[in-house]
Amino acid sequence: VFSQGTAAAWTTVLVGVSTLFVANFLLKGKTFAIVEGERRKRKKYLELMAMVKQDVEARKAAAAEKDNDEEPTDLPEADRIFGLLWDDVKEASTT
């Protein structure tokens, strides 16, 4: 079966199978559903970060109007900040 006469055929088969493996498993990109999910998650995170930033800036402006040089003591809600820092699905940090 493995002889010098069949070496060319086996080499062809090995190259063909390797090419199919690489094409099917290594070169495939993300599916549309995954890309769309990541896009929605990114949009949600950006909106939440903008909202938190806007809230903090508004509190700083309110403190400045009162001629209070101290930083505002009331912070944004912890669960919103935690939502930005932790991914529940992958159970991993988002940063």
List keywords for this structure.
95 residues, mainly alpha, 2 strands
Give the overall silhouette.
rod-shaped
Give the number of DSSP strands.
2
Query: How many strands, which pairing sense, and closed or not: the largest β-sheet?
Result: 2 strands, antiparallel
Order of helices and strands: HHHEE
By DSSP (H or I, 4+ residues per run), the number of helices equals: 3
Low-pLDDT sequence parts: none
Strand order of the largest sheet: 1-2
Proportion of residues in extended strands: under 5%
Which structural class do the helices and strands define? mainly alpha
The span between the termini is 55 Å
Secondary structure: helix percent: 55-70%
Write up this protein.
- The structure is a single chain.
- The protein has 95 residues and is mainly α.
- It has helices at 7-26, 32-65, 78-85, and strands at 86-87, 92-93.
- It has a two-stranded antiparallel sheet with strand order 1-2.
- The model has no long low-confidence stretch (mean pLDDT 81).
